[in-house]
Write a structure and sequence with these properties.
- The complex is a heterodimer of chains A (about 425) and B (about 120).
- With about 425 residues, chain A is an alpha/beta fold.
- Chain A folds into three domains: about 1-120 and about 255-325, FAD/NAD(P)-binding domain, CATH 3.50.50.60; about 120-255, FAD/NAD(P)-binding domain; about 330-418, Immunoglobulins (Immunoglobulin-like), CATH 2.60.40.10.
- Chain A contains eight helices and 27 strands.
- Chain A has helices at about 15-25, 60-75, 140-145, 165-175, 195-200, 260-265, 305-320, 400-405; strands at about 1-10, 30-35, 50, 60, 80, 85-90, 95-100, 105-115, 120, 135-140, 155-160, 180-185, 210, 210-220, 225-230, 245, 250, 255-260, 290, 330-335, 340-345, 345-350, 355-360, 365-375, 380-390, 395-400, 410-415.
- In chain A, the strands form seven sheets. In chain A, strands 1, 2, 5, 6, 7, 8 and 19 form a seven-stranded mixed sheet that branches. In chain A, strands 10-17-11-12-13 form a five-stranded parallel sheet.
- In chain A, a hairpin with an 8-residue loop joins strand 3 and strand 4 (about 60).
- In chain A, helix 3 (about 140-145) packs parallel to helix 4 (about 165-175) and helix 4 (about 165-175) packs parallel to helix 5 (about 195-200).
- The radius of gyration of chain A is 22 Å and the shape is globular.
- Chain B has about 120 residues and is of the alpha+beta class.
- Chain B has a five-stranded mixed sheet with strand order 8-5-6-10-9. Chain B has a three-stranded antiparallel sheet with strand order 1-2-3, covered by helices on one side. Chain B has a two-stranded antiparallel ribbon with strand order 4-7.
- The longest helix of chain B is centred in the first third of the chain and has 12 residues, at about 35-45.
- The chains are: A alpha/beta (about 425), B alpha+beta (about 120).
- The interface between A and B is medium-sized, with 31 and 32 residues.
Chain lengths: ~425, ~120
């Protein structure tokens, strides 16, 4: 058994920011456990820019953003174990992991931060008819092939799903000489940022077909084509709208799933909507001393927000370890209403004496609506919003004096209004 | 002439309508900030973009290392710049910011490394 004050699971942007913040707050023995060969997580393959505008005030590529944190980690005495797979986390904060140099290791930590990130929804999660021909892969897998391993997975590409990774890969494949025939989106709107639709599709005349999906793949050894079809308002394919498109590659960008296997194993409660842990304002789960942050908690659209969230978790873990969180705690729920799908954190301590930021997403596209926040039955803010979209995370601040005025049976509600 | 465009300056993605005559912009409407106005004007006169790709690396941790244009380049030069990027092979180690190509295609912009590669 190895003893640490803090064990951080995952060495991507979330894990690094959390570990660094905990260090800054005075935590002594910290270890980061990372499954891949290097720190950096998924940022290493995101070679496009657009990272860091909020946090660093400059537009960086993924690897550049990661490198800033990797350098900071190296300057500290934080232990880093790469090529290390965590097998389990228990309620008493014992972490079991394995790697080729240490073998099986058991770590007893005073606090644990879960920062495992998320993975892509695979083909198996969709109901597409056809064989298991090669050439069908998630957009992120294709991104790794092109940007890290240095080879092209195909020449004629169809992309299903217009999330940002799909859009980014449409441009990347085009730049490297492939022909991206079409991007199909099941929903009547794109889940990606408008700027990505402009820069990645429109710039290269790649068509985006909304309310359209792939219903069948063709080819036995290698993908030869796909059948696409329009869908009705219940998202069911409309007979007669089928169209065959010749292609050797189908990329899927159909959503991200937080990797919460370890979380579930530890008996931590998850939110049905985010698929991440239910947390308080310090990102502490319902298991004392176990915190969660980054994409394992909720899928973010900007890494800058991952960093900020992880710093909160890092500080929370530090307070827990150093015994500075012993004040009175009265938790009340945050409740998403009318148009708001979820809120993180799901509960907040009204005795916290600090402003608390709530992060949330809406469930559909809204134009010229108001975002209303109600605390203890009173409307505390109602802000006009030109545009609200599911692909763009929103936030509101609950001031500390409002929190202090609330009672234990009150709730904080956020909703979309006319 | 009138042209509708979505601004790419920030995630808001305002729908902007630009009225122009040749390369002279007469009016910009629909933007909600100054950056939108500037974006719309460059889009009409000389649209620019940044490009990100990879170059081959000898003896590196990985077969390729990522790179970017050090600033925006004319949209029309994108594929010419890609051709130049794809001709480059570098030797490890590579440092972030290292220049792979100076003044690529006479754009006044360099191709620079965006990741470190310490070699095998």
């Amino acid at each position: 058994m190895i003893n640490y004050d803090l064990a951080v699971i995952g060495g991507g942007p979330a894990g690094m920011a959390a570990a660094l913040k905990a260090k800054e707050c005075g935590v002594e023995k910290i270890v980061i456990l990372e499954r891949a060969e290097t720190l950096g997580g998924i940022l290493e393959q995101c070679i496009h820019t657009g990272f860091g505008l909020h946090y660093f005030g400059e537009e960086l590529s993924g690897p550049e953003y990661a490198a800033k944190f990797i350098d900071l980690v190296k300057e500290t005495d934080i232990d880093v174990k790469v090529n290390t797979m965590v097998l389990s986390v228990s309620e008493d904060k014992t972490v079991t992991a394995v790697n080729t140099s240490d073998g099986l290791i058991k770590i007893q930590a005073k606090a644990v931060i879960l920062a495992m990130g998320c993975r892509e929804r695979p083909r198996g999660a969709l109901q597409i008819a056809g064989t298991r021909a090669s050439g069908i892969m998630t957009a992120g897998t294709a991104q790794k092939y092109v940007n890290i391993d240095g080879y092209m997975p195909g020449k004629k590409v169809v992309i299903l799903g217009s999330g940002d990774i799909g859009l980014i890969m449409a441009r990347r494949m085009t730049l490297e000489g492939a022909e991206v025939k079409v991007v199909c989106e099941l929903m009547p709107f794109s889940g990606g940022l408008t700027r990505n639709i402009v820069q990645c599709l429109n710039d290269f005349n790649i068509p985006l077909r909304l309310s359209t999906t792939v219903i069948e793949t063709h080819g036995k050894e290698r993908l030869e084509g796909v059948t696409i079809a329009q869908v009705d308002d219940k998202l069911c394919p409309i007979p007669g709208t089928e169209e065959y498109i010749e292609c050797d590659t189908l990329m899927l960008s159909v959503g991200l799933i937080p990797e919460n296997e370890l979380t579930k194993q530890a008996g931590i409660s998850l939110d049905r909507i985010t698929n991440g842990a239910i947390v308080n304002e310090m990102r502490e789960t319902d298991c004392d001393g176990i915190f969660a942050c980054g994409n394992v908690l909720q899928v973010h659209d900007l890494v800058d927000y991952v960093t900020l969230e992880s710093q909160i978790a890092g500080e929370g873990a530090a307070r827990y370890i150093l015994g500075k969180d012993s004040g009175e705690k009265v938790y009340i729920k945050t409740v998403p209403e009318n148009g708001v799908r979820y809120i993180v954190p799901q509960k907040v301590n009204i005795k916290s004496k600090e402003d608390i930021k709530l992060y949330f997403r809406v469930g559909a596209i809204y134009k010229n609506k108001k975002l209303t926040v109600e605390a203890g039955g009173k409307v505390i803010s109602s802000k006009k919003k030109v545009k609200l979209a599911p692909g763009e995370m929103e936030n509101v601040v609950i001031p500390s004096d409002v929190l202090a005025s609330l009672g234990g049976t009150d709730t904080i509600k956020v909703r979309v209004e006319d | 002439m009138k042209k509708d465009m979505n601004c790419v300056a920030c995630p808001l993605g305002c729908l902007i309508t630009v009225e122009y005559e040749g390369s002279e912009v007469i009016s910009v409407k629909g933007n909600t900030c100054k950056r939108g106005d500037a974006y719309a004007r460059t889009e009409i006169t000389n649209p620019v973009r940044s490009i990100h790709s990879t170059v081959k690396v000898n003896g590196g941790e990985h077969p390729v290392v990522p790179c970017k244009t050090s600033g925006p380049i004319p949209k029309s030069a994108i594929f010419d710049v890609m051709k130049e990027i794809n001709k480059v092979t570098v030797d490890a180690p590579v440092k972030i910011g290292q220049v792979f190509i100076k003044n690529v295609c006479n754009t006044g912009v360099d191709i620079v490394a965006t990741n470190n590669d310490n070699g095998k």
